[in-house]
Design goal:
Layout: H1 2-102, H2 106-109, H3 112-117, H4 120-142, H5 151-178, H6 185-207
Helix pairs in contact: 1-5, 1-6, 4-5, 4-6, 5-6
Length: 209
Amino acid sequence: MSKDRKKSNQDKVVLKEIKAGTESVRKEEGKIRALEKKLSIQSKQIIEEEKHIVEEEKKIKKLEKRIIKEESKILSVLKRFKLGKKHLFDFIKIVAGALLGTSFGAGLLSKKELATNLPWINVAGIFVLAFVIAGLLVYKAERKSVTKGKGIILYVIKRVIYIWIIATAISTLASFLFLTETLPTEVLIKSLLIGSYPAVAGAIGFNFL
């Protein structure tokens, strides 16, 4: 009987230890589950934060694109303003030079006899010579700003024509202001052409100061 009791007591002790171990395991499992739940919540929070960061990055990129567009618009406006300002100063210098070249039309009136006696072929020859010289002066003064290649000749021709038109217009206006007698149309045209040479020379010289 004593042996049976000892065995029964031992079995009870073992059962208690098993129960205690089981409860300990359950507690550990509960802790693990709580930890997993906590990690799951933190993981969801991280994912939400990442999504928020991605959205913020998209907004920043859109803002950067808008800033770049605004900068390009501002630069374009400034560039146009600089070009407009440059053209205005260019025009003023050409007009001033043309007025100096014509001496306010007095030089044209002194060409009356020359225009009357000079044949058209001579006038045309002087015109071509003056145009070539003007082209050389323009090329010499602006060759650094002209791109090398086939466009040089076209640029010089356009530039000389631009200067010539303004100078001739100023010369014509000045001549009419100082004209004291009516001239035949042919003589007047020859006089204007002859008088345009010093006007163009003055315009080119004054423009490149």
